[in-house]
Amino acid sequence: QADELRERIEYALGALSDIDFFLEKPSMNKSGQSLVSLVEHVAHEFSGDQDIRLRLQLDSSPVRAVVSGPVIMDVLYLILHNAARFGGDNTIDIAVQAVDRRALILVRDHGPGFSDEALQRAFDPFYSTSPEGLGLGLPHARSLIERMGGQIELRNVSDGGAEVEVSFPGS
Questions:
Q1: Res 20: pLDDT
Q2: Is residue 132 within 8 Å of 18, Cβ to Cβ?
Q3: Angle (deg, nearest 10), helices 69-86 and 35-49
Q4: Above 90 in pLDDT, residue 106?
Q5: CB–CB of 161/87 below 8 Å?
Q6: Cα–Cα distance list, 116 to 70, 135, 154 (Å)
Q7: How many CB atoms sit inside 10 A of residue 90's CB?
Q8: Residue among 115, 37, 46 at smallest CA distance from 79
Q9: 101-104: which pairs have CB atoms within 8 A and are 24 or more residues apart?
């Protein structure tokens, strides 16, 4: 029983630490940033932390947006964490591209995709389909993206998996 109690206390402390992170209001010092560079940095960090294969498709031309570099990196890490959790052991695809004066970051997993309920409720605080999840990652990511003038969309991909699209006006 002592081991189980210790495990539950460690879980609770971890959850409190996570909640503290989500309650922080980070500085939004925005400037023109290369999304390609930011994605490369986060992909390197994430692949060092997780045993998941990432496949990058980066636009050869500069893809820039006015964002807070540290904030967008936190957001991308949260999105990659979800993709890794729900995409199984499959590769995660990350694409950066400029389309119609918008800077896009696409993160796609190759898991089962979102259920209908998860697509509708993914941005509801404390909604999670994972027993380990707090349900704060995507709502937090959305809030930060919108504070930087961007948008986030979720969808299922016709040939399997889920895709998260983060977009900003190009700079």
A1: 62
A2: no
A3: 50
A4: yes
A5: yes
A6: 32, 16, 11
A7: 16
A8: 46
A9: 101/169, 101/170, 102/167, 102/168, 102/169, 102/170, 103/35, 103/63, 103/64, 103/65, 103/167, 103/168, 103/169, 103/170, 103/171, 104/63, 104/165, 104/166, 104/167
Residue type, 48: G
Tokens of 123: 């941005």
Q: Are 68 and 148 in contact (CB under 8 A)?
A: yes
pLDDT score of 93 more than 80: yes
Higher pLDDT, 62 or 79: 79
Q: What is the mean pLDDT of residues 4-31?
A: 73
